[in-house]
Amino acid sequence: EQSSEVWLVLQGMGLDGQVSYPTQKYSFQIEDSAVELRGIKPSRRIKMKNIHFYTCPSCENIVFSTGEAGVSCCGRTLPESVPKEANDKQRMTIEKMDNEYFITSNHPMKKDDYISFSAFLVNGQLMVNSHYPEWNLELRLPRKGRGLLYWYSKKDGLIFQKI
């Protein structure tokens, strides 16, 4: 009897090995930011570029998945937050400094409308930062290549910008 899914949380890149799962062993390889599982069904590739965001309007909880998921929080099912590309007024200011990006925003960080989190997706990694009302949004991220910067506010929803 085979299980239909196995979820693995893997940190680091360039890993090859085996993981024990109840009574069977499954091999895995990480290549090009994808995890390939063998031994269950035909292999399923998990890629970070297929990331989905779910945000709870009540408690502002954030859930990420690399595929569609049924997510609930505070007693309700959460719809997927579909990202919209930032317009000129919403865009973050990005400066290159040494080996980092220095990111700022002119978004009003008021208690009733502020950017609650930002996430930078680059080279198969997702770096998440939380932000607070009445604080300036200033962020330093490592320059690891081109990627996508996501951020969320209750008023505007989920927004992204290419870096």
Give the oligomer, counting copies of the same chain as homo and different chains as hetero. Answer: single chain
Separate helix tally: 0
Largest sheet: 5 strands, mixed
Provide the helix percentage: under 10%
Poorly predicted runs: 1-43
Structural class by SSE content: mainly beta
The main sheet orders its strands as: 10-17-16-13-14
Q: Give the terminus-to-terminus CA distance.
A: 46 Å
Number of strands: 17
| Overall body shape | globular
Series of H and E elements: EEEEEEEEEEEEEEEEE
Whole-number mean pLDDT: 77
Strand content: over 45%
Gyration radius (Cα, Å) is: 18 Å
Short description:
This protein has 163 residues and is mostly beta strands.
Provide key terms for this protein.
mainly beta; disordered N terminus; four-stranded antiparallel sheet; 163 residues; single chain
Structure description:
The N terminus is likely disordered. It is built from no helices and 17 strands. 15% of the residues are buried. Helix content is 0%, strand content 49%. Strand 2 and strand 3 form a beta hairpin. By secondary structure, the chain is mainly β.
Layout of SSEs?
Elements: E1 16-21, E2 24-31, E3 34-37, E4 45-47, E5 52-55, E6 62-65, E7 71-73, E8 76-78, E9 80-81, E10 84-85, E11 93-97, E12 100-104, E13 115-122, E14 125-130, E15 138-142, E16 148-153, E17 157-162
Parallel strand pairs: 10-17
Antiparallel strand pairs: 1-2, 2-3, 3-4, 5-6, 5-9, 7-8, 11-12, 12-15, 13-14, 13-16, 16-17
